Every structure is written in C-alpha cells, then in structure tokens.
From TrEMBL:
Keywords: Apoplast, Secreted, Signal
Protein name, entry field: Dirigent protein
Domain of life, source organism: Eukaryota
Residues in the signal sequence: 1-30
Family: Belongs to the plant dirigent protein family.
Metal-binding in keyword set: no
Pfam families named among the record's database cross-references: Dirigent
Length: 187
C-alpha cells in the first residue's frame, strides 16, 4: 500500500503539468483573439467627388510640385481629406453601405505620374457588418487598371483584420472619381 502512494505522489506533478499543457494553449489563443477566422469578400463603389455642392473630397493643403497628369489638376504635395460614400452599385442612388473616411496625398514628384498615398477607414453602416471598420493604407498608382492596397486592421466584426483591397477606376472626370473596391479580408 505504501508503494502505491509513492507512485501516485510521484505521478501527481507530471499529471498536473500535462493538464496545464492541454488547457493553457487554447485559453491563451482565445485571449489573444487567435484561432478560427472568418473570410469576407465585400464590394463597394466609392464616390470621390471634389466638385459641386456635395463634394466629399476637399484639398486642405496645396502642393507646389508639378501637375500629376491624368485628367486631374492635382499637384505633388496636395493633401485631400475625404468622407466618401460607399454604395452597393455604381450609381449615386444605389443603397449606401458605408463611408470611406481619411486622406490621400499626391505623393509622386514626377510629372505625368498620378500616384497617391491613401490612408482611409472603410466604415460599414449597413448590413450584417454594420458598425465595423477596416483600416486601409498604401500606394495608389491611379493609372494602373487594378491597384492593390493592404488592409492593416479593423474594429468590430473586423477586429485584427488582415487582407487587401483591389481598386479599379470605373469613371474619372477631372477630380471626380468613381472607384470599385473589392475587399478580401480575414478577421
């Protein structure tokens, strides 16, 4: 009988260590938000208008560099703050899904190279992801047919999001631009 107690006493620390090894990693992953992630594909149409009474993009600092080219009169160094409507379809009368809020900077000093640096939050105001937000930042070579920008984070349903946005110009007239955003994200 004494021999069995010694054997159990010798195994108790090992059993305790095994229990901790099995229980702690899942708890730590849940605490950090790591684990099963959902994939999302969202499509928005972004209406970026600098002209007219409903302008959603305003130049707040005028650059002094060369004109960027394209059909825009933006110059190197221009800083534009935006609060653009995100819609379900390309028409301004399409159902509003959210807002693209942030800024962009004309970041190329080479004339004829309309490149921007964009930093924006895609704020969802409608549908099952309402109240959630994605943070997007990166380089936008506006003459490329498709541009890729990284998703660097999010809030709400998109907490700790990673992914990318494929951006296409649907219509560009002067400083008014309609963009199609295909957002691929894991959160």
């Amino acid at each position: 009988m004494a021999r069995q107690l010694i054997t159990f006493a010798a195994l108790a620390p090992l059993l305790m260590a095994m229990a901790v090894a099995v229980i702690v990693p899942p708890a730590a992953c849940a605490f950090r938000g790591v684990g099963a992630r959902e994939s999302y594909h969202l499509r928005f149409y972004m209406h970026d208008f600098s002209n007219g009474p409903n302008a959603s993009a305003i130049v707040v600092a005028h650059g002094t560099g060369p004109l960027l080219g394209g059909s825009s009169d933006r110059r190197f160094g221009d800083v534009v703050v935006m609060d653009d409507t995100l819609t379900e379809g390309p028409n301004t009368t399409s159902r509003a899904l959210g807002r693209a809020q942030g800024f962009y900077i004309a970041s190329s000093s080479i004339s004829g190279d309309p490149t921007l640096h964009i930093s924006m939050d895609l704020v969802v105001t409608s549908g099952p992801c309402s109240g959630s937000m994605l943070a997007v930042t990166g380089r936008d070579n506006v003459l490329a047919p498709v541009r890729e920008l990284p998703v660097v984070g999010g809030m709400g349903r998109f907490r700790m999001a990673t992914g990318y946005v494929l951006m296409k110009t649907v219509n560009w007239h002067g400083n008014d631009v309609l963009l199609e955003l295909d957002v691929y994200v894991h959160a």
